[in-house]
Each structure stands twice: as structure tokens, then as C-alpha cells.
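[Automated response] Your request has been received and processed.

Submitted sequence:
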Amino acid sequence: MIIKKLAVPFINEKLLQQAEHCYIATASISEAGFDFIRSRIPTKTKMEIITGLEMPTAPEVLQRIWRNYQGRITLNIYTRNTFRANVYIFDLPYKKSVAFVGSGPFTLGGIKDNEELFYKVSDTKEIEKLKSWFIGYYEFAQPLTEDLIAGYSLVFPAMKRRDHISGLEKRQLIALTTGSLSWDQNRFKLQYFKKEDYFALRNGKVQGNSSDFNAARKRIETKLVALHEQVKMHLQKSRLHADDNPDAIVGGVNPELPSDNQLPGMWVAYGPAAAELRKFETPTTLADVVHFKIHLSQSDFGIVLVAGETGKGKAGREYFRNRMNEAEYRTLTLNLLHGLGSGYWIEVACERRNADSFTSEDDLWEFTKADQWLYYDFIISKNYPPEAIEVSNEKLALTVMSEIDRLSPFYQHLTETNRVG
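Generated structure:
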């Protein structure tokens, strides 16, 4: 029998509640996926799991299994080759068993949200063959240890970030090539940035470092500087300044320094004036403190509040994390986020949510707890598609000023943490 969503038989047939023993082989594990199954099986039910670490598996899950489920849940790591199998086997009462073989890993997406495919197996002989297959890999895998968890925790953030960037690249590619964005040249007559500006920031063109790309980069730089000239007086009233070096106002892609840590883009950053930055004890740039960016990518134009770039602003981000322990501060943070209105999203530790999607202060608190300044960006953004009237010749400067004004209360909320170590 073909199963599209594994959660359906799990819930409708109450398989998890009946499970007497679970055997799970999977390519990756998430906390939400683990909780989906663990919370539904009886406390006496034993679970044996085997996974590889080629696909991101949350270290928190490994730590929880090691610390809290000794004797009940055992997990082995297969290291001899890439491990991508996904098999779920459940022993049920009255010596019955059921198994599912398919594409979905032990994550909430694999079980419930993604488009996966499983085949349900009920035949006793076939299930015994699957158990023999499982045991063959399980016995040759490495037992979970504290040293393994500690070592994996160090490399996981980079794995997660690469996976996140890869996902963004795929979504942009789909938007660029399947018609969700219209690239009819006539539609760009009134737009500030033209079709060729967006196309110049496609990955292949950036990595080519050709004379055509360098000319396109210069064209985009000129446009961003011209936009900066239109908005700078308004932003300076809010004590927001770009780099005071005219040759360094525009930042962005450098084809000589390829990176898998960010998508290609060009921007102008705004924050404290150079004189304010010089007051810090250590050398400080805008990247080290809370700041804004007006940002052009290959698929949209964004107004971005950067609470912290990867590896930057340690003191500020840790201060914010500590302040979120206070109920009053959490309430204010949620109200400011909801006050932004529709279209804004927040990214913490490579996870994105709409700004108005948080149902409570605790919901937001749990989300922000995942932040790690050394490994991830912390940003709030609103993005406009290339054809939007808000990014037309007539409207773009007004859009930048009004959206930065809208974000300013949140900026002020964060700038008390605007310090570096």
C-alpha cells in the first residue's frame, strides 16, 4: 500500500500508541520529528535507531537521547558509507508487525509536511527481511557517545548553514525559471533595477568573474550609490549612516572570494556613524553592530534589519538572549515584531518565520533561543519582487525610508545591545 503522509497511519490507526518495539533507520533526525514519535509511543516501548550524519541531524536530539533515554532508546551512527535509507518498523500486540519503507527521514517534514512516498509492508516474511537488513547495519554502526556528540556539535552549524543556503538557492532558481517571476522586459520600464541587474547576480555569473560581470557590478553599484544619495539625509535624522569611505559604501559579491555562506547580493549598510564606532574598545565596523541593509539579490530587493551577522556582535547578541529571560522584555519584543505588519520575516539560526506568526511571547522566546552568534545570521527583513511598484523609479526611495522608519522601533529596542566585546 502506498502512503503519502506517514503521519496519517501513525495517528489514524494509532500505530504509535500500540508500538511495543520500534526499529528506525533514517537519513536524519530533527527535534520536532523525534518528539512527534517519542511523545506518542508508550513509555515502556523500546526504540532502536540508526542514522548517518551526512544530512543535518540536530545535536540536541543526540544529547537528549544520550542523557534522558538510556536503556529505552539506543542510537547508532553508521559511518562506513553514506546512509540515506528511511525504514520504520513497529512490533505491535499479538505478535503483529508493520513497516514503512520510503523517502521521508525522521523529521517533521519527512513524516508530515513534505511530499514523500512510503510503501506499507504487512507481510510477516517481508518484515523479517527488513529486520535482518536493519540489524546488519545497526550492528556495524558506532554507538552514540559523549565524545561523538561533542565533535559533531562543532561541525553541525556549518552543515546546517550550507543546507540552508542550498535551500534558498533552489527556491530562487524555481522563482526565476518557473514563471512565478515574470521577466518580460516591458514590465521593467518603470523599475529602478532592471532585468539585467537581477540576472547579473545569478550564481553562475558571479562565479565567472568575467568582464561582463564586473561591468554589471559597477552598474549596480552606481544605482545603489544614487539611491543612497536620495535617502541619506532622511536616515541621518535617525542617526543612521553609511560607511564614510565613498569607495566602500556598496558591499557585496566578490567573485575572487567565493563563499557558500551567503547568496550573491549587493547592498548599502547603515548604522552608527564612524565616530560612534571608534568609541568601542576594540576595532568595530557596521558588521559588528545592529545595522540596516538595503539589499539587491538575484530575485528581490530587501530592507533588512541585521541584529547580527555570522560571527559578529557577540556581546550584543548574548545580551539580547539574556534580556529575553525577562517576561516584560519578551512582551515588548513580540509587540514590536507584530507591529511591523505583514510581509516581514525573521531568521534565527537558519530558520525563517513570518514576523506575525508568533502566537505568544514564549513561542518567540523558544525561536530566538536557537541563535548562536558564532555560526548564524540574525535578521528581520521585508522583500519586494522585481516588478513591485514599491521598487519602481518613482517609489523606491520612499519605500526604503518608510520601511526603515517602520523597523526603527525594533532597531532602538536592539541598539541597547549594540556593543561588542
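Summary generated for your ticket: The chain is about 40% helix and 20% strand. The mean pLDDT is 89.
If you did not submit this request, please reply to this message.
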